[in-house]
Design goal:
The complex is a heterotrimer.
Chain A lengths: L6 H7 L6 H8 L3 E5 L14 E5 L9 H7 L5 H11 L8 E5 L3 H12 L10 E5 L7 H23 L5 H23 L10 H13 L2 H16 L11 E7 L5 H9 L2 E8 L18 H12 L8 H17 L4 E7 L3 H18 L3 E6 L6 H21 L3
Helix pairs in contact in A: 1-8, 3-4, 4-5, 6-11, 7-8, 7-9, 8-9, 8-10, 12-13
Chain B lengths: L3 H27 L2 H19 L23
Chain C lengths: L5 H6 L2 H10 L27 H27 L2 H13 L1 H4 L5 H9 L4 H28 L7 H4 L2 E4 L17 E4 L2 H10 L4 H10 L8 H11 L9 E4 L5 H14 L3 E3 L12 H19 L5 H27 L7 H14 L3 H19 L10 E6 L9 H9 L1 E6 H4 L10 H13 L4 H5 L2 H4 L2 H7 L4 E7 L3 H4 L2 H11 L2 E7 L9 H15 L19
Parallel strand pairs in C: 1-2, 1-3, 3-4, 5-6, 5-7, 7-8
Helix pairs in contact in C: 3-4, 3-7, 4-7, 7-15, 7-16, 10-11, 11-12, 13-19, 14-16
Classes of the chains: A alpha/beta, B mainly alpha, C alpha/beta.
């Protein structure tokens, strides 16, 4: 396939958290608001005069200082974030909007709050939002109240941000535009012969999360147009198609590694992936903007922390349904080392998805940055071979 | 019913037995004979029993989807 | 026959030997380590504590508790039928058949070296715990469908995650409803009593693909279900996210393997904010509605109030105990008894056996205070233990006192539940119950908000402690996530803190001997002190219970 025009530009934006567009966004006089989890509604951090940055720590392979603070037995992602913060890599953020949705990212944010001067920015503040574990009415009501108190009131009182309904509606509009573009781009992965690789899509999705939207949207739009006419290769350079599910992954090179083993990643059901993060936000009649936001982020999420009985059982089917929709031949379930939610979820998925839904599963544990790719490569190659063999036996 | 002598003899026997049992129990206690019995005999036996017990295979346990809040249909 | 060595015999100080026989050896001369049979933790012979204390131990602890175990089985089990169910359960479940029979050795380990009132009061705590265990064990077996338990009893029984407070069942207790915390007896207490069993559950769940790094407690809890070692004794389950991310994972396994109606009653993580209480309160109310639907019972407010008032009495007595612990040398309860008893009754909820124990302990404690008895006379340092304790070595406190004079005055787990629940109105009561849940074990001062784990400093001061035993649960993400901040604070505050690494139930990660070695090293090199009992410095208890 011909190269995407902006791919190298997008890749460059992912080299550091404080990228060109973030700097430009700040120069334009906007507040830069950091967050890590889908449960912190990105849209509320994109209110007029603000922009959201989902924090990453690219190329952080050895978080030594953070390991002193958080030991070597916590999630590499959380530690890498703290390492980057201690290095001064997040001095550009004006506030961290934290959620205690998984323990270690919360501890990361608590360090920012507790340790003087980690973020060398005089205006810096943190706010913690409680996120429910269920999707019932009580949860939506609670989540709405938390968002009002811990995000909107915080931004208004501390930074004078306009948090009116109109302002939220405007942010929803901009976000929806981005969401729709990414979704449309992602739909090319559903083709029998996809015209976008998992790596490319991962890069595109990530830039939409780590740059001010108003500065990146044109290039996303252009990329969508470009993809509409992009032709697939005559002979596919992959052997099977897979869905990637699991815990936090903001490293496109991990997708590249999978694809280099012959498995095209056609669906991304993991933290920092596009499914469900790039769904269109609907405002139902009778709901105010904030209620719509609370409902959207709570009800669309398929996070492994949801505890209602039907949710715990249903989310396996969601993965299987995605795999069917995106015509995947198999599923790779990954969990970051020390990620407790996905350690359990991965174990169950590895048994239930093949048994009840008929999808072959490759179950792996990975680091935040996968420098030791040799072992993973062997695992992926073996998986590709086994699925390929199965396809041949089934005469596909 | 009983003669005085017989009565005394029974009482002596009862007391003697009680003292004997008490002294025996004290020996069990002091020399940790209960611990030793459990450690060297009972636990290995029970362990073997539990190791050989047939157990349900988790792979065969269904994980059905449910429609209602509390599985009331079940 | 060998002739007696008269020369040696002449050297024996008979006066001293007689004194030791009557009163027991003084602390520095006991050499308790010499009593062990290597590897096993068994005793060549149990300790001679002097006539009075040895006979107290034999009559009032060893014999009495064996007897009371039989009595509890008959009373709680409902007579001979219950005894048969108990035997069936012992044969069916590893956590019973391989574990609890060794209960008196648990007493031994935790009460080593204790004398006088300290021995008595601490032993009563263990009596309370044992009774509570038997209450639950008979509860499990009498209802268990796997061994022919009574379906009518089962129909009135709610299974819960062990971090769901037992008070959830208070409003229904007069209607025969029972609450069975699904991990408390099959897992949690086993680790203290006989840590061999739990390893099977950890291995079982890992054999099905769970990585080795999540909290080993949750691994073991999940392993119980994977290993098919949970009785089928309840009709429905209430689970929770407490205390951590892994607990959520355990809930999924519980749901999968038991396939029963399940209600998730999650509690908030950032609990300081008053705005979150309302959400928790509503979840608790929903859990009550769920219980009523599933068990066919009605909400009885008076019954709830009755039990909460009784529970508040327990909490008030606890504060009295703390007052004595903090301000006198007459507190008669050792570190392990204090910690386990407090966490057990606070979590399991109010029951008559706790009050019986409290009465006895109050009497002993009042005597100690009135007569100004120094209950732990060899105390060199007053220790506060912080964070989550090693379950397989909860008796470290006893060892540390005997070996080094480190007296554990208080611990984090004990402090967490310090809340008198209001009963003036339904609303106040509900809000307090919500708060009580939020302060669950391992939450308030551990995995929960950062500021609460640093309540250590004020509690150090309050309890007049000069040293911290800082538990370092290697697989607790919440506490591992703040180790550096603690290090910084210890340095800045010039506090003597010993980091004690462990993996909750799994002794394979950090063996007990290694824990002792770490404490020994600190005491020798940093504190520059000599042991009170050198025989306890190093001994092999690798295969012990």
């Amino acid at each position: 396939m011909r190269d995407l025009k902006h791919l190298i530009y997008f890749e460059d934006l992912l080299q550091e958290a404080n990228n060109d567009l973030v700097r430009k966004g700040k120069e334009d006089g906007n507040l830069c608001l950091g967050y890590t989890c889908y449960f912190m509604p990105e849209v509320l951090l994109d209110l007029p005069g603000c922009f959201s940055v989902r924090l990453r720590a690219p190329k952080c392979t050895s978080p030594d200082m953070a390991t002193y603070y958080m030991s070597g037995r916590t999630c590499h992602y959380g530690r890498s974030l703290l390492e980057r913060a201690l290095e001064g890599g997040y001095n550009f953020i004006d506030a961290q909007l934290a959620t205690e949705t998984c323990t270690v990212t919360c501890r990361f944010a608590e360090h920012l709050d507790y340790m003087d001067g980690v973020i060398n920015n005089a205006t810096f503040k943190t706010s913690f939002t409680d996120v429910p574990f269920k999707k019932n009415e009580n949860s939506i009501d609670h989540f709405r109240k938390q968002l009002k108190l811990k995000v909107l009131d915080f931004l208004h009182d501390e930074f004078g941000v306009d948090t009116s309904d109109e302002a939220i509606m405007k942010a929803i509009e901009i976000n929806n535009e981005v969401n729709d573009i990414i979704t449309e781009i992602g739909n090319f992965r559903k083709l029998d012969r996809p015209t976008i690789t998992g790596y490319e899509f991962s890069v595109i999705t990530l830039v939409s999360m780590v740059c001010p939207k108003y500065l990146i949207i044109d290039k996303l739009r252009e990329t969508l147009e470009e993809l509409k006419t992009r032709e697939p290769d005559d002979k596919p350079n992959y052997k099977i198609k897979v869905l990637l599910a699991g815990s936090e992954n903001d490293d496109p090179d991990f997708i590249k590694l999978i694809e280099s083993c012959g498995a095209l990643v056609v669906a991304d059901r993991y933290c920092y992936g596009s499914l469900e993060a790039r769904n269109h936000i609907n405002v139902e009649p009778g709901d105010d903007a904030l209620t719509a936001v609370a409902k959207h982020y709570l009800l669309t999420s398929q996070c492994a922390r949801f505890m209602e009985q039907k949710e715990m059982r249903h989310r396996k089917k969601v993965i299987a349904d995605y795999a069917t929709e995106y015509k995947a031949d198999g599923i790779i379930v990954e969990s970051n080392k020390f990620c407790e939610y996905w350690s359990f979820e991965r174990m169950i998925d590895t048994i239930v998805l093949p048994r009840d839904y008929g999808f072959p599963v490759c179950s792996i544990e990975k680091e935040y940055i996968n420098t030791a790719s040799g072992q993973l490569r062997t695992r992926f190659q073996a998986f590709v071979e086994s699925v390929e063999l199965k396809k041949i036996q089934e005469g596909k | 019913m009983f003669g005085k002598k017989k009565k005394t003899s029974i009482i002596t026997k009862v007391i003697g037995t009680a003292v004997g049992v008490y002294a025996g129990l004290f020996c069990v206690f002091y020399f940790d004979l209960d611990g030793k019995l459990l450690y060297y005999v009972v636990e290995p036996f029970m362990k073997k029993h539990f190791d050989n017990m047939e157990r349900r295979d988790p792979h065969t346990v269904p994980y059905d989807l449910i429609d209602t809040e509390y599985m009331q249909k079940k | 026959m060998k002739k007696p060595d008269l020369k040696k015999l002449k050297e024996v100080d008979f006066k001293k030997a007689a004194r030791d026989f009557v009163y027991g050896k003084p602390h520095g001369e006991r050499r308790l380590g010499d009593l062990y049979i290597p590897k096993t933790g068994l005793y060549k012979h149990r300790e001679w504590r002097g006539i009075k204390d040895t006979m107290y131990y034999f009559n009032n602890i060893w014999l009495y508790n064996y007897g009371m175990i039989v009595r509890d089985l008959m009373v709680y089990g409902g007579g001979p039928k219950g005894a048969i169910q108990f035997l069936k359960g012992t044969w069916r479940y590893r956590w019973m058949g391989q574990t609890y029979l060794t209960v008196m050795h648990w007493f031994d380990r935790c009460l080593e070296g204790m004398r006088g009132e300290a021995l008595q009061a601490s032993a009563w705590h263990f009596r309370g715990i044992t009774s509570a265990c038997l209450y639950q064990i008979t509860g499990w077996f009498n209802r268990d469908a796997n061994i022919g338990g009574d379906p009518a009893l089962r129909a009135k029984t709610l299974g819960t995650d062990e971090t769901v407070w037992g008070g959830i069942i208070y409003p229904y207790m007069d209607q025969g409803a029972m609450y069975l915390p699904t991990q408390m007896i099959p897992y949690f207490v086993t680790c203290h009593c006989n840590n061999h069993t739990v390893l099977n559950y950890i291995d079982a769940v890992q054999a099905y693909g769970l990585p080795g790094d999540p909290c080993p407690m949750c691994q073991a809890e999940a392993g119980l279900y994977i290993a098919d070692d949970i009785p089928d004794s309840y009709v429905a389950m209430v689970t929770t996210n407490e205390a951590c991310d892994s607990s959520v994972g355990t809930s999924i396994i519980q749901d999968w393997m038991m396939n029963k109606p399940l209600f998730a009653m999650p509690q908030v993580m950032q609990f300081d904010d008053d705005s979150v209480l309302e959400n928790c309160a509503k979840e608790i109310e929903m859990a009550w509605r769920f219980t009523e639907e599933q068990l066919g019972v009605e909400f009885h407010w008076d019954e709830l109030v009755k039990h909460i008032k009784l529970q508040n009495q327990q909490n008030q007595f606890e504060r009295e105990k703390w007052d004595v612990a903090a301000n006198t040398h007459s507190y008669p309860i050792n570190g392990v008894a204090q910690a386990l008893y407090r966490i057990f009754y606070s979590q399991y909820g109010e029951r008559p056996f706790w009050h019986d124990v409290d009465k006895k302990v109050r009497k002993i404690m009042e005597k100690c205070v009135n007569e100004d008895i120094n209950t732990f006379p060899m105390t060199r340092h007053r220790v506060i233990a912080w964070s989550c304790a090693p379950l397989y070595y909860s008796a470290w406190c006893t060892w540390a006192y005997n070996c080094w004079g480190l007296n554990t005055i208080i611990n984090m787990d004990s402090l967490m539940f310090d809340l008198d629940i209001r009963t003036d109105t339904y609303e106040n009561c509900l809000l307090d119950i919500a708060k009580y849940h939020e302060w669950a074990p391992m939450r308030r001062m551990a995995v929960g908000g950062l500021q609460h784990i640093f309540e250590l400093w004020e509690n150090m001061e309050k309890f007049n402690c000069d040293m911290v035993m800082m538990y370092d649960q290697l697989q607790c993400k919440g506490m591992q996530g703040v180790v550096g901040l603690f290090e910084d604070e210890f340095r800045a505050r010039n506090i003597h803190a010993i980091w004690m690494p462990h993996a909750l139930p799994d002794k394979r990660t950090v063996p007990r001997s290694q824990i002792r070695q770490i404490i020994n090293d600190y005491m020798f090199t940093v504190m520059g002190e000599e042991p009170l009992d050198p025989s306890l410095l190093d001994f092999d208890d690798s295969d012990s219970w």
